[in-house]
Structures are given as C-alpha cells and as structure tokens.
Amino acid sequence: MKTQILHFTLCIIWTLLSALSLYAQERQNDTRHDWSGTDELTVLVGTPWPAPFIDMISTPGIYGTESVRNTDRRLRLPVFGLEYSHNLTAVIGFGAGIYYGYYETPVSIPGNGTAQMHRTEHSHYMQLIARVRFNWLNREKVRLYSAVGAGVLVKYDNEIRSGLLPEMPYRCRTLPWLDLCAIGVTAGQRLYGNFQLGVMSAGFVTAGIGYRF
Q1: Which distant-in-sequence residues (6+ apart) come within 8 Å of 22 by Cβ?
Q2: Per residue in 69-100, pLDDT tens?
Q3: Which of 93, 105, 107, 98 is nearest to 126 (CA)?
Q4: Are 109 and 116 in contact (CB under 8 A)?
Q5: d(CA 80, CA 208)
Q6: Has this prediction a pTM greater than 0.90?
Q7: Are 41 and 149 contacting, i.e. CB atoms less than 8 angstroms apart?
Q8: CA distances from 42 to 39, 49, 156 (A)
Q9: How far are the Cα atoms of 51, 52, 161, 178, 185 from residue 56, in angstroms, in the given order?
Q10: How many beta carbons lie within 10 A of that of residue 141, not counting itself?
C-alpha cells in the first residue's frame, strides 16, 4: 500500500510539473484557440484500482472477509475505456464514458477440521459515466482541463457469500458511482494523445489516443 501511495504521489508531482511547463510554453505566444462545436472521441487504458477500492465494492459476508481472500495473489487487469465529449463552448464540454475492468481473487474457505476449499472469485465491472469538462487552457496543440462525472457501476461476479457455498453463483449488482479528473491533457490537433490523473472510473492514471472532429 505504501508503494502504491508513493507511485501515486510521484504521478501527481510529474503531472503538475508537466502541466505547468506546457502552460508556461503556451503562455509565451498566448494564441488561444476556440474548439467550440467540435467533438472528441478517446480510447484509453487506465491503471487497475488498488486493493482498497476493489474491497470497497466487494460483497460483505461471513466468507467475504480478508481472512480468507488471498489479496496478495489477486490478478487485476488494466481498465479499458471509451470517452466521448462535445465542446459546447471554448471552456465547457459535456460527454460520457464507458469503462470495463476485471479482477480475480483466490479464496480459501474454512472447511471441517483442517480441510479447506479453494475457489477463485471472478469479477467483471462496467461503468457508465456522464461528465462535465472545464477546459482551463485552450491552445491549438495543447489543452488542459478538469472534469467531474457521475453514473453507475455494474458489477457481475461470483464472490463468496455465506449460505451459497460451494456453488458460488454469479450475480449482477448496480451501484451509484462518481468520477473526478483533477488534471487532463490533450497534446495534438485533430489526432491527439491524452493523459488524465484523478480518482476516475478508469483508475488513478490513464493514457490514450483520440480524434477531434
């Protein structure tokens, strides 16, 4: 956990320094650009959520505790996302995103005596988020922005629950979800690279490529 916090802190510092550098470079020629009326489509990959976030949306229950879940051996895949945004004005944009992630967790279930049952929990989650974006630097090749969003998380899993052993049936749940992008950067004109940092549906850090039309 300490290593994850350190990496996250370093990402924040690097992103802030990069944003300030881009801002200073663009301020020298101060050539504001108005992207009003255009649309943006971005494909991105995000860092998988750390264990505390995963456990927060896990199923509570007698057999769903940390004492039987082997979280050190948990497999987490990157989060994949597709985002759309419409630039209503030079500053304000509205859009939506869809994101998919997957993780699996080995579980040891107490049995009779010293015997134990071993299972693997499989969890798929999809998020549908509506976002409002605030573009606070608009240049021809560089844009800096922040965004907030809200939507739902749909989770499909076979997590262990008391009274349902050993079958582990799958079930689907829907939860309210929030999204916050502290700093986002696009570099390019029509075809651009994208980088985001925040507490987002696609993780703390995302990188991707997009097209503006």
Answers
A1: 137, 142, 144, 185, 187
A2: 776 778 888 999 999 999 999 899 999 999 99
A3: 98
A4: yes
A5: 10
A6: no
A7: no
A8: 10, 20, 25
A9: 9, 6, 15, 14, 29
A10: 14
